[in-house]
Amino acid sequence: MKINEYTIAGLKKRLKKIDVGEDIINEMLNDPRKGVKELALRHRKKINRRKKDLRKWRENQQKQLSLHEAGYRLIAGLDEAGRGPLAGPVVAAAVIFDSEVKIVGLDDSKKLTENKREELFHVIQDKATTFGIGIVDNRIIDKINIHQATFLAMKRALNSMAVKPDYTLVDGNLQIPGLEIAQEAVVDGDSLINVISAASILAKVTRDRIVIEYDAEYPEYGFANNKGYGTSEHLFALRKYGPTPLHRYSFANVEQISRKAGDAVE
C-alpha cells in the first residue's frame, strides 16, 4: 500500500476496508502531511485499545474455562440493573455462552457508553447459546422490598431461558436463596467475568428501554435522562408533581414526598 498515492479522504476510506498493522502506521507517520500523521495516531490508539480489550477478554474467560474443566458445560452469568432508582422495575438478565464464543469489549455495563452497550446488546443476543430476562415492577418491589425483588428478577431470568444452566455465576456478594442450581457469587463479577458482563449489558439496556418509554407519559420527570434514579431533576419533579404510579413508594425519598403531599391535601 503506497500512502503517498492517496488523498487523506481516500486513505480514510481505504483503511476501513483493511487490517491496519504497524507497518502501515509507520508508513503513514513518515508521510509529510499532518492529516495523515494524525490519522495514523488515531489508528494506533484504536489498535492498542483493541489489544487491551482482547487481553481483558482472555483474562475474564478463565473462570468459565476452569468450570468447563471441572465438568460444567452450561455456565450462566447473572446480573441485575435498577436496584437504586426511585421509579421503574428491577431487571435481571442471565446469559449462557459456549466457551469458544469471543465478544471483545465486554465490561460492566456502567463503564460503557450507551452506544457501546447498544452495539454489544445485539452481539450478545446473536452469539449467546441462550439468554433470559426477568422483570419485577415497582408494585412488587414495594410489597417484598428491593432486596427480595432482585432475587425474584434473577430467578425469573433463569426460568425464562430455553436451556437451563448447570452452574450460575452471580454478580455481587450474595447467592440466590433456594436456587436449585450450583451457583457462586462473584464480587465485581460484571467487570471480571465475561458472561456476567454480558448479563449486565442485557439487563441495563433492557431496563433503560423500559424507563425511556415512561418519558412519553411523564415527560416532566426526565426519565429518558435519569432512568428513574434520584437526580436533582427527578427529585425536583417529585416535589413539584408528586409520585407517579411508576414510583417505588417504599423508598425513603418517594415515601417522604408522598406523605407530605398527603398531609397537604388533608
Fold-level CATH name of the largest domain = Nucleotidyltransferase, domain 5
Q: What integer is the average pLDDT? A: 93
Element pattern in H and E:
HHHHEEHEHHEEHHHHH
Q: Beta-strand level of the residues, as a percent range?
A: 5-15%
CATH superfamily of the largest domain: Ribonuclease H-like superfamily/Ribonuclease H
Low-confidence region ranges: 262-266
What is the CATH level 1 assignment of the largest domain? Answer: Alpha Beta
Quaternary status: single chain
Number of strands: 5
Radius of gyration: 23 Å
Main beta sheet: 5 strands, mixed
- State the secondary-structure class: alpha/beta
Report on the architecture of this protein.
The protein is of the alpha/beta class. It folds into three domains: 3-60, no CATH class; 71-206, 2-Layer Sandwich (Nucleotidyltransferase, domain 5); 214-265, no CATH class. It is 53% helix and 11% strand. The protein is built from twelve helices and five strands. It has a five-stranded mixed β-sheet. A hairpin with an 8-residue loop joins strand 1 (75-81) and strand 2 (90-96). Helix 5 crosses helix 9 (194-217) and helix 6 crosses helix 7.
Brief description of this entry?
The protein is an alpha/beta fold. The protein is built from 12 helices and 5 strands.
Please specify the SSE layout and strand pairing.
Blueprint: H1 8-15, H2 22-29, H3 34-60, H4 62-69, E1 75-81, E2 90-96, H5 114-127, E3 130-136, H6 138-144, H7 146-159, E4 167-171, E5 183-186, H8 189-192, H9 194-217, H10 223-226, H11 232-241, H12 252-265
Parallel strand pairs: 1-4, 4-5
Antiparallel strand pairs: 1-2, 2-3
Helix pairs in contact: 2-3, 5-9, 6-7
